[in-house]
Amino acid sequence: MIMYEKRIKCLLLAICGAVLVGCGDGEAVHTSAEPAETVAALAESGEAADGEQETSESGEAGAQEGAADSGEGAEPVPEANFMAPVEMDENLKNQLAEEMLEENEMDTSVVESAPVTKGCSFTLPEAFSESEDIEGMYVTRRYPIDASTIYYVALGRDVALQLMTEETFKAQAEENFRKEYGEEIEVTIDSFESLRIDGCPAFRILCHYQVGDTQISQLEYAINADKSYVITYSQTSDYDRMEEYEASAETIHLEF
pTM score, two decimals? Predict the structure, then answer.
């Protein structure tokens, strides 16, 4: 069941890779005020360019050696100019995200006045308790026979999260599965809603996907404040706890 837990976490973290940013490792604590930092995607593209430079240089060296061995003269190949790895600071990243939000007429309140939060709280369904193996994971007393789980994570402030759409969530989730496990797993979005929790913009996402013979359903809440809080309720087709999950979700509140 360890692989199952990893897949739940993978889909959860996919939400943080929307549009401009890739998410870092989240600190999975119930009411943490110490978020993990996010990484700008442009920095990753800079690293990729650096890698291309190394490949290009080694290819050019091989070509020149081959010409020397055959006795043929060859003009030196000019070096290509590649962009060095870029470190995008938080202010620039937020500025770009804000511009995209304005251009697409999306909610900019998280940029304008994100409140300072101490954490996020919610009431666990009666059958759940904290996992001994994964921090932030809550499992049933009959786990792993009943593989229903609840996962909570607090991440660093991510203005670009507000740019997320149903299409980007689905695409990023499927891409994460493909990279992590080498499998094509189709994620079906049953509903994708924008709402507000304690005055902060949030998303409610209901989705399902098939892993082997098992269908997994997930109800996910992502709150975008001065930190990003994500709660994911998961169940297999063997157990239906969605009513309990909905009741728990109604108790989600930010702590100021």
Answer: 0.67
